[in-house]
Amino acid sequence: MASWYGIPFDGRRTSNGETYDMHQFTAAHRTLPFGAVVRVTNLRNGRQTEVRINDRGPFVANRVIDLSLSAAQAIEMVGTGTAPVRLEIIGGPNPQVGFFGVQVGAFQLQDNAERLRAQLAMRYSPVAVALYDSPNGLFYRVRVGRLPSEDAARRLGDQLQSSEQLTAFVVRLDD
Length: 175
Hints:
There is one protein chain. By secondary structure, the protein is of the alpha+beta class. The chain has helices at residues 69-74, 110-121, 150-164; strands spanning 2-5, 26-28, 37-42, 48-55, 65-68, 82-83, 85-91, 99-107, 127-134, 137-147, 169-173. The strands form two sheets. A seven-stranded mixed β-sheet has the order 6-1-5-2-4-3-7. The protein has a four-stranded antiparallel β-sheet with strand order 9-10-8-11. Strand 9 (127-134) and strand 10 form a beta hairpin. It is globular.
């Protein structure tokens, strides 16, 4: 499932450091490398668009990509807000190269993030807190692991969900 984002994110910094422009053909993805070019096909109507990955997200269960407003308009999904999609990588960096982790929490209070980090650090390594400046304020994201493949991170995520009862998302760890 794809979703889209516009205001209040427009004009804010994306995860790769660019300024988000909802009128450009860009998207957020949790694990594809920045600069990857992806063809997105709306499975409801067959409409296609191409986007460049420049942000991270969506961090909502069952969603795989968050499109800019212009990209969502191009595949006619603005009104519905979401749509089933097919993604095809058509250019950019190798998506298999890099490191992956598992995000298990996002907190507005740093103390809460540090408490979870300390709790998990007794059983897992590494566990880190990453700062995220969102339109709704600062968030402290707790991330576990630094693994060489998305599959290895997915297995760790499954383990964290079953043994720790935490909601887990595989994420690319960008340097």
